[in-house]
Design brief:
The protein has 396 residues and is an alpha/beta fold. Helices cover 42% and strands 16% of the residues.
Length: 396
């Protein structure tokens, strides 16, 4: 009887989906109100006492942006329209930079008030300064995003590295994000720089492209001509899993790169050997791609325990597995160095590092690149792109 009653009971119903949608919609509306409302208030209202026509014009511009942005993002990234994606991405960058510096301007307005600067002069000075800073940062940030990245050089001591591999040069590119803006010419210039660096190994650490192979193949094609004396290796990033991850792995193999899909290769110079291993992005297991999911144990299967290991893993937070397996050095991208300040502080909430070289555990070092390209908004503000050269040295 007791079993019969127990089996007939039902568990509490899950939280109703409509309620969740209401909450999410409410959050989205609050965020949108802040993103668009703070610049509107700081520049056109506050205590500036602009003529009526200026305030009306400001409202029209902000309202048009507020309506256009979500429509362009949905059509561009949801329905694969490159012109709409370009418009939406540009607007997203403009809105973010305007919000950040309007917020700073609002704080400056309070400070100016405390020291006795009166309105409307105070608010007009702040409004003019905000507009000027935003325009300058957007122009400069677009230049930084579209330029060929600077070369960043780092020496890394790997104690287990054999003497014959001392001075091994590893060149890294990552987060190229070939996408709605045709950057085939930029891609060719990046390859020219990479080929001038006399690399032993060249790595691409994921987020190769946004879109299918058929749509982005032309932009990726210059990578066919990358030169390295020992190996060219590639792993997937999270953006590959928005679409055709396996197709991109196959395509990179077809143009002469070794796709490290949870596997490794060994490179040798003289009498010494180093393992180059790669794992899928940490989001791969939740994708629709069969057989995908980060698996470092599989990637290192058969590796002799005394060999030094160089690991490609797209996200810095994959470092925990690297430490567990005693990897000597992991290289990652993903963070873009924040891409548009002050976004890097939000990235720090999710990732252990945003850029640069760091040490984890007793043996493992992690180098996080700011990325070679950009995603979405074609701007980089206080987060310059890079092509990285790591020169590995032994401790002997």
């Amino acid at each position: 009887m007791a079993e019969s009653r127990q089996s007939g009971t039902t568990s509490a119903p899950p939280v109703a989906r409509p309620a969740r949608r209401v909450v999410m919609t409410g959050v989205a509306l609050v965020v949108a109100a802040l993103l668009f409302g703070v610049p509107l208030w700081t520049v056109f209202f506050a205590g500036a006492e602009w003529p009526l026509w200026v305030r009306v014009a400001g409202c029209v511009v902000i309202l048009a942006a507020a309506v256009t942005l979500p429509v362009a993002m949905v059509r561009g990234h949801g329905r694969a329209s490159d012109p709409a994606a370009r418009l939406g991405d540009v607007l997203l960058g403009v809105v973010w930079v305007s919000f950040v510096w309007s917020t700073i301007g609002a704080l400056a307005r309070v400070v100016l008030g405390l020291i006795g600067v009166a309105d409307p002069f105070r608010s007009r000075v702040v409004a003019a300064a905000v507009v000027a800073v935003v325009v300058v940062l957007l122009v400069w940030g677009h230049y930084e995003a579209m330029r060929v990245p600077r070369v960043v050089r780092r020496d890394v001591i790997v104690p287990r590295l054999g003497h014959d591999l001392d001075g091994l040069r590893v060149v890294m590119i990552t987060d190229t994000h070939y996408g709605p803006i045709d950057r085939a010419g930029w891609s060719a210039k990046v390859v020219d720089v990479v080929n001038s660096l006399d690399a032993d190994v060249v790595c691409h650490i994921g987020d190769l492209a946004d879109g299918s192979v058929s749509r982005r193949e032309q932009q990726v094609e210059p990578l066919r001509h990358v030169t390295a004396t020992l190996a060219r290796v590639y792993v997937t990033g999270n953006h590959e899993y928005f679409g055709e991850a396996q197709a991109w792995l196959d395509h990179m193999d077809s143009i002469g790169w070794t796709a490290l899909h949870n596997k490794h290769i060994e490179i040798q110079r003289g009498n010494d050997t180093m393992v180059f291993a790669g794992v899928d992005d940490r989001t791969a297991a939740g994708s629709k791609e069969d057989g995908h999911g980060a698996d470092l144990d599989r990637a290192l299967d058969g590796v002799a325990p005394d060999l030094p290991v160089f690991l490609l893993a797209h996200q810095p937070k994959q470092i925990a597995d690297a430490v567990r397996r005693g990897v000597d050095i992991q290289v990652s991208g993903h963070t873009h160095g924040g891409q548009i300040w002050p976004f890097e502080y939000l990235v720090r909430l999710d990732q252990p590092t945003v850029h640069g070289l760091s040490r984890h555990g007793e043996r493992t070092q992690l180098y996080t690149s700011r990325g070679t390209g950009f995603w979405g908004p074609p701007f980089r503000v206080f987060a310059p792109s890079e092509i990285t050269v790591l020169t590995l040295g032994s401790s002997s």
